[in-house]
UniProtKB/TrEMBL annotation:
Membrane-crossing segments per the record: none
InterPro entries: Aminopep_P_N (IPR007865), Creatin/AminoP/Spt16_N (IPR029149), Creatinase/aminopeptidase-like (IPR036005), Pept_M24 (IPR000994), Peptidase_M24B_aminopep-P_CS (IPR001131), X-Pro_dipept-like (IPR052433)
GO MF: manganese ion binding; metalloaminopeptidase activity
Keywords for this protein: Aminopeptidase, Hydrolase, Manganese, Metal-binding, Metalloprotease, Protease
Reactions catalysed according to its record: Release of any N-terminal amino acid, including proline, that is linked to proline, even from a dipeptide or tripeptide
Pfam family, one: AMP_N
Source taxon at top rank: Bacteria
One GO CC term on file: cytosol
Family (UniProt): Belongs to the peptidase M24B family.
EC number: 3.4.11.9
Protein name: Xaa-Pro aminopeptidase
Amino acid sequence: MHTTPLHLQAFNPQPFINRRDELIKKISAAGGGVAIIPTAAETLRNGDAHHDFRPASSFYYLTGFCEPEAVLVLSVTASKTQSILFCREKNIEREIWDGYRYGPEAAQKVFAMDACHAIDQLNQILPTLLNHQTRIFAPLAQNTPLDAIITQALNQSRAATRSGATAPTQWHDIDALIHEARLVKDATETAWLHAAGRISAQGHVRAMQACRAGLRETDLEAEILYSFAKDGAQHAAYSSIVAAGANACVLHYRAGHSVLNDGDLCLIDAGAEYGFYAGDITRTFPVKGRFSTAQKAVYEVVLTAQNAAIAATRAGANFMAPHDAALEVLVDGMLDLKLLDKQQVGTREDVIASGAYREFYMHRTSHWIGLDVHDVGAYSEGQTESQQPIWRTLQSGMVLTIEPGLYIRPAKHIPEQYWNIGIRIEDDAIVTDSGCELTTRDVPVTVADIEHLMKG
């Protein structure tokens, strides 16, 4: 079954119209052509049971349309532009089993398309749209069924050249244009991201309040998912990480059946999806509600690193500025806590240059977030002559996570009180001209606030 039909919601097509118009301008600037953007395919889970359907992010970004078996076509010439949706026909019998379908007539009106046709007419209509065009804009090597449809249409268009028509001779990656547009969020998107952040935060609060020794990781995951659903999320934005004790040192650990023990920390990385936009929060807290001296020392290093990264996040800074700011603090912490021996590794600058810090911090501090939890868009703007990346300049409206961490596995050269401490702190930040706005701080982050919430 797919999501609640938009005819039962207050759907506003204007943001989607605006996005199509911006993409049409880019296609026009490139000389015009036909853009073909498919939604996702329905996927079998097993037997005849499907996974819940979710539209392809870029398709949804341009249409707001949530049904499977759909394709958006943008036809752009010097004299005329058209937004054309291909979707399933009305079928009352299938609606009894699977739920409401718009059908072409209603879809054209609701989603403000210039035209709308049944999906089984795509093979017939697409060749005529390609005639007298020179460029096709479509995903490259991502959709085998669509590739076959485009190939067939292109061959028919080529055959028509004997009657005086012209056929496209260029294929451009439409994803490159759409992904660039998706990097900077509009007001509608930031509203969804705020909502996803609030719902995600409440799930984390519930998990902290429910936590006690003897529960399993999956028990806390159930609390989080219940909270997400209760507060209106469509789904979890990704598979939740709930990691007790040593499991927190495994970066992509999934919630399992490990028991929460007094004296352990619990790391939860979980986010809700709302309006198809993702929240992404990580918090680490003590199972018994109070940090040990060693746990608190490591936690304060990571929190200070996150605050330094937040302060470095603003329009005009480059994408790696938050990471660089966090890394300096983390390395100082590694040296102060004697995780790294100054006699062996040298100064902070030496540690960063050698990469010795990667024993305890092996990932970047940020990634884009939006319709996808690891959202699309280039992180660099090219390379220097020495093939070093030129990191992207942050712009107001870009959205990224800020998530430093320390992961300390047992080893002879590491003080034993720090063994199996894994801590990550993550929030979502909307870049502004003066800094950034965090959308996920409705869940405590300081040691005092976490302990106060869990005590209450």
